[in-house]
Amino acid sequence: MNFTDIQQLLGNEAESLLGFNSPKVSKDLLHFPSPTFVDDIFGQSNRNPQVLKSLASLYNHGRLGGTGYLSILPVDQDIEHTAGSSFAPNPLYFDPENIIKLAIEGGCNGVASSFGNLAIMSRKYAHKIPFIVKINHNELLTYPTKYDQIMFGSVDDAWNLGATAVGATIYFGSENSDRQIIEVSKAFERAHQLGMACILWCYTRNNDFTKDGVNYEVAADITGQANRLGVTIQADIIKQKLPQNNGGFNTIKFSKTDPKVYSELSSDHPIDLTRYQLLNCYAGRAGLINSGGESKGASDVAESIKTAVINKRAGGTGLIMGRKAFQRPFDEGAQLIRDVQDVYLSKDVTIA
Questions:
Q1: Could you report the per-residue pLDDT of 202-233, keeping only the tens digit for each?
Q2: One biological process GO term for this chain (predicted)?
Q3: pLDDT (tens digit, 9 = 90+) per residue, 6-24?
Q4: Residue extents of the structural domains in the chain
Q5: 3-state helix, strand, coil in the chain (%, to 5)
Q6: Which architecture does CATH list for 3-345?
Q7: Residue 256 is a catalytic residue
């Protein structure tokens, strides 16, 4: 995937995304991915040497190793969305070994999955690619459907199976968010004690965040504050959905904000919206990785490249992409992962 390929895939959005060079927040105020990111940022923090070693293991693995960028394969949708809905398009992935093989073939920095998926293959692969154990999940077997994140195992168990990092989700804004914040903050404290890195899925979830048909769960101001809460509980890396709009606080009429958030710190440009998310990650001291989203078939490659360009040009750390890769034939999925990585390897796609 060269720069011309990237331009062609972006189509009529190429000029707007690749030529954007007037961000509201100057890059001079931010910290960006670099080959020395772990030393420069976490070397000044309270993270102990074992955590630094784990972070370095993630940042130095795979095709993006040594660049400061991350490419992670996440496969926990068999719990979150049911295995049938996730793997029916490609039954190969009912077998957890193929999940890990895809991450290796795709040149990922790490593979994120459930306790069971990683534990069953631990002795064969934990030393070959960094494991990120997702310690909590929503599950859709309860009826009527509820939305909550509950713990599926212990941090010590993740360490015992050879994990380099743990991952967790908090549904900020939900009725259960207080409990989730307490549970995950304690889990992250224990993970850091044991020397593992911590990645937080910083999602917002509340039916009342939708108004007049617009879903503000993906608003830059609301997700930005979710990121701020995530780094407060010492997440080393923040996973967030790409922002789709802004002004959630004003529209829903809750919490507090400031007019300058919308006039001086962001605009309606997707790179500006994503940069505001990054600004809330301690100005980039915690890396921002955006999610790849659901698979839509033929448009997946173009959509993934677009997301990667927005994330990189905003100053983000990479992409965490699952369904777009594993819901297609193995070789195609691995190639899609590598295509996205090529955006981060391209010297022509610069930080705005």
A1: 999 999 999 999 999 999 999 999 999 999 99
A2: glycolytic process
A3: 999 999 999 999 999 999 9
A4: 3-345
A5: 50, 15, 35
A6: Alpha-Beta Barrel (3.20)
A7: no
